[in-house]
Amino acid sequence: MKLLLIGSGGREHALAWKLSQSSHVEQILVIPGNPGIAQVPKCQCTDLALDDLQKVADFAEENSVDLTVVGPEATLVAGIADIFRSRGLPIFGPDKAAAELEGSKAFSKRLMQKYHIPTAAFQVCTDLETAKAFITEHGAPIVVKADGLAAGKGVVVAMTVKEALDAVTEMMADHKFGSAGASVVLEEFMDGEEASLLAFTDGKIVIPMIASQDHKRVNDGDEGPNTGGMGAYAPAPVMTETLRIKAVETILKPVIAALNKEGRTYCGCLYAGLMIKGDTIKVVEFNCRFGDPETQVVLPLLDSDLAQIMLACATGTLDVSMVQWKQQAAVCVILASGGYPASYPKGLPITGLDEVDAMEDVMVFHAGTKTVDGRIVTNGGRVLGVTALGADIRAAQEKAYAAVGKIHFDGEHHRTDIAWRALARAEEKR
Ligand code: AMP
Ligand code: GLY
């Protein structure tokens, strides 16, 4: 098989790494890729613009690509899958109508409401005055969400009415997120512990992956501002087997069925961000693609051929027997640039990568790097994701941090407590 992979982050590096292990895969063309992906066997990066998706389809046709895999949501929401399917090109990822599940929070919330999928109570507002009146009436805490895509920054969990009023004003009057904030979702605040449950689906059957947990705050103890994710681990013990079955039966399967009923067949990876409290599970959000950094811990635990699974999703032939998991744990620590998530320098040389390369069961996924004169330098807020596998979370965590200790660049920052909730839970049980 010849594959085309779209994207350039740590998630796509993990996808490339896992796909390249398939004996069915001869070559992986990547648009645009990154320096880490360029080193993955079978991968060849190409710098083609993603703004003209017909040209991307031309490229796939010219290169006789058998399957295209799309990483980022923006490309899916823009309708890449519709273009590819209309030209008979197999693609892993939902079409525009199904990707609205992530592309419009108002659509997603209304769908959940219509089909009784558990989620927080909400109100969609399309004008500022109504939004302000609703907030004043309901009080805080309250969650303000821009309807459209805002690169993960469109959610404000407001602990005071003032914060909420400021947030809607920024979104609706100051157009902080452009048209994405023209309407907002005001949502009841949910208390609990979050987990991410990703699933493969061909639009007919849904196969959950291993539950994982992301660490969104920049500092240890989940303190400081939100980031794109400072690390992740899997499996997440908060998601017990009972809860996982409940999530599949009351959330994942119903939402795929609901989309089908609405004439929006969904193929690809479905990401459910879930809030767990006791034995209740509610949806925080749906994403129409793999999570980042969750992918960097979930895929290393996959014991099956990812290319075959993805082709089956794209061709409506997915079967439960295709997806097996390793009985291990994975921890991923993100190495970020000093200053992130605010402004940070770029172009700083990274050392120690070769040494970590030699370590067994350790993978370094590139998120924000660049090659300059043959050397790898920093080029983003989140620079690298260091993932390690181990017999359990503690073993994986120890190995991940041993690897992290070998990598250096000026100002490098990482959290030292990735997976703390799993370890605290294990401690409690003893
Ligand atoms: P989202 O982009 O919808 O996942 O929101 C980003 C983050 O905001 C989530 O991962 C949660 O930590 C938080 N969040 C979103 N909605 C709620 C809610 N209704 N209650 C509490 N926290 C929330
Ligand atoms: N880790 C959160 C996301 O991928 O949206």
Give a structural overview.
- The protein is an alpha+beta fold.
- The strands form 6 sheets. It has a 5-stranded parallel β-sheet with strand order 3-2-1-4-5. A 5-stranded antiparallel β-sheet has the order 12-15-18-22-19.
- Strand 13 and strand 14 form a beta hairpin.
- Helix 8 runs antiparallel to helix 9.
- The protein is globular.
- 50% of the residues are buried.
- Bound molecules: adenosine monophosphate and glycine (GLY).
- Glycine binds next to loops.
Write the layout of secondary structure elements.
Elements: E1 2-7, H1 10-20, E2 27-32, H2 35-38, E3 43-45, H3 53-62, E4 67-70, H4 73-77, H5 80-86, E5 91-92, H6 96-103, H7 105-114, E6 122-125, H8 128-138, E7 142-146, E8 155-158, H9 161-172, E9 184-188, E10 193-201, E11 206-208, E12 213-214, E13 217-219, E14 223-226, E15 231-234, H10 241-261, E16 268-277, E17 280-287, H11 295-298, H12 306-315, E18 329-336, H13 353-357, E19 362-366, E20 369-372, E21 375-378, E22 382-390, H14 393-404, H15 420-429
Parallel strand pairs: 1-2, 1-4, 2-3, 4-5
Antiparallel strand pairs: 6-9, 7-8, 7-9, 10-11, 10-16, 12-15, 13-14, 15-18, 16-17, 18-22, 19-22, 20-21
Helix pairs in contact: 8-9
Q: Which stretches are low in confidence, meaning pLDDT under 50 for 5 or more residues running?
A: none
Q: Ions, cofactors, ligands: which are bound? A: adenosine monophosphate, glycine
Q: Can you give the helix content as a percent range?
A: 25-40%
Q: What is the tally of beta strands?
A: 22
How much beta, percentage-wise?
A: 25-35%
